[in-house]
Amino acid sequence: MKNVVEVKKKDGETIESLIRRFSKRVQQSGVLIRAKKSRFREEAKNRREQRVDAIRRHKIREKKDYLRKIGKLDDFENTKFKTSRSRQNR
């Protein structure tokens, strides 16, 4: 799908009005919106990549559970936002 926005200068038209007309046409055509949507789009992972990621997450979860069980990992340190209680426990 190729969208080319073309604007030709009219007789006696200033550069500013030409640029304004061009900008309006670009916005109306939706080219910018499509470009912004597709800019950071990631392709879906295939089944193998999903499986590898799931195995990695499972191993990390098991290791954290083990460390928590033996007392090496404090539950408060694992939270995203540390509370005042976690600072007192240090």
Low-confidence stretches: none
| Largest sheet entry | none
- Order of SSEs: HHHH
> What distance lies between the first and last C-alpha atoms, to the nearest angstrom?
59 Å
Please give the number of β-strands: 0
Report the sheet-strand fraction: under 5%
Number of helices: 4
General shape: elongated
Overall mean pLDDT score? 84
Class by alpha and beta content:
mainly alpha
Radius of gyration: 28 Å
Q: State the helicity in percent bands.
A: 55-70%
Organism: Candidatus Kerfeldbacteria bacterium CG08_land_8_20_14_0_20_40_16
Protein name: 30S ribosomal protein S21
Q: If you had to describe this structure to a student in words, what would you say it looks like?
A:
This protein has 90 residues and is an all-alpha fold. Among the domains are: 14-41; 44-76. 59% of the residues lie in helices and 0% in strands. The protein is elongated and about 80 Å long. The termini are far apart.
Could you give a short description of this structure?
59% of the residues lie in helices and 0% in strands. By secondary structure, the protein is mainly α.
Question: What is this structure's SSE topology?
Answer:
Blueprint: H1 15-29, H2 31-39, H3 47-70, H4 84-88
Structure characteristics:
30S ribosomal protein S21, elongated, mainly alpha, 90 residues, single chain
